[in-house]
Amino acid sequence: MAAIRTAVPTMRGVATGVPRCMPRMASRMSPVRSFQTSRIGAAIKTLYTVEHEWVRYDDESNIGTIGITNHAQDSLGDVVYIELPPVELEAARGDQIGSIESVKAASDIYSPVSGIIVESNVALDDQPNLVNKSPMDQGWLAKIKLSDASELDQLLSEEAYNATLE
To answer: Does the keyword rRNA-binding apply (predicted)?
Structure first.
């Protein structure tokens, strides 16, 4: 029996009967964590425009992360170039803040809210296809410090946005 116990992997000294590689494999296979689960107590919500942009707003920091929806990237096809907004750009809701070019078409990017751009996703300079691979996570476009959080009330919930696609 002692030989079996030493062969069984342990986690913090307690025999679990699960190979050591399983917890790591399970974490790699688990879904990507959303921003909504990243902090306890923070109110983070994702809202959408009918033009297929989204903003993930963190009410604790007053920062919104902007991107295009999966529907938009799917309609565009393979993205080959993205013009990102410059940091410190002051944008009003509905202003053009950049553009996306794909093998099929080019499209303007509009700000879903008013504010000042505080960060652009520079990873997209070298890997614009991140927008295709992960439009709601790694393919975000810019972060904006909102000047009027009440504008969020004019955006769509995920359910309302999906209804516009039907």
So the answer is: no
pLDDT of residue 161: 96
Q: What tens digit of pLDDT does each residue of 97-106 get?
A: 999 999 999 9
Amino acid (one-letter) located at 65: T
Confirm if 46 and 55 have CB atoms less than 8 A apart.
yes
DSSP string over the chain:
-HHHHHHS-EETTEE-SS-THHHHHHHHHSPPPPGGGSSTT--EEEEE-TTSEEEEEETTTTEEEEEE-HHHHHHH-SEEEEEPPPTT-EE-TT-EEEEEEESS-EEEEE-SS-EEEEEE-THHHH-TTHHHH-TTTTT--EEEEES-GGGGGGSBPHHHHHHHH-
